[in-house]
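Running this now, will post back.
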Amino acid sequence: MTPDDPEWPRASAWLAARSDPAALAVLGIPLSRTSLSPSAAHTTPGAVRAALRRFSTYHAGCGRDLRDLAVADHGDVDVSGRQPTEALAAVAAAVAALPATIPLVLLGGDNALTRPALRARAHDLERAGLLTLDAHHDVRGLHAGPTNGNPVRGLIADGLDGANVVQVGIGAFSNAPAHRRWADERGITSVTVAEARAEGVGACVRRHLDALAQRCDTLYVDLDVDVLDAAFAPGCPGARPGGLLPGELHDAAFTAGAHPAVATIDVVEVDAAADPTGLTVDNAALCLLHAAAGLLTRITALRTVSVEELRSTAVSPSSSA
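Update: finished.
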């Protein structure tokens, strides 16, 4: 085996370092019993951690090294053998146990985790905002209980204001007309792939996050990897041709991590067992890394502002004489 290059830092080592205190928390949610179609999404958090070995800690675009970002990986929530309602309660409890002041990335698992996680992270659900990168509206009926097809509908039933929900990347032939009407009637903002691409996906996400931040106390971003074109996401049962390109999703993840109002990001809907080349898992891992790089730029910017504020308010020796 070729020895590691000491000048090539692996992202897997960064995540495994388990810093305390940490500026970023990571939690695995190995959930798949709530999937509408057969799925082994519960294998994905571990697969994402393993995939990080293939990536370095350096983001060439912003010139940041993730080794400058203290991270704590809290492992996986134990949901094995639990029925859906019990599993989702365990997710809520585990998320609620983490400090609300530390940004959190959740590694799914299927999209059903978004509902309990957002409820656990929001002090007041009516003052929370949700932005999704998703091909689907996720507003199927609740008659069959919580699934990965209805977290948004469930959250609105719980008290989330539909006007505080933005869905970016909606697919052309991926939703029922009744579901679109339901979303429209509740004030949900829907942005198609074509609309997001015309604006620039990162710019589109930033604009909507800025608007949500004006009226919400906390923001949650749901990165459903099936928003990607199916060619880049064979491990996403819901992905179809015509979705976003990987770079566009990664840009959205970076933008979410960099936004000062975003408290939580989840990465969901990847079935690692159905991903023969590992391409989909790599994209999920890159969502984590780009979100972390965005957070590092956020923290660095805050530090810079603080130093500038101190300098602007400092009294020089000559003026105090």
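The first strand starts at residue 24 and ends at 29. More later if anyone needs it.
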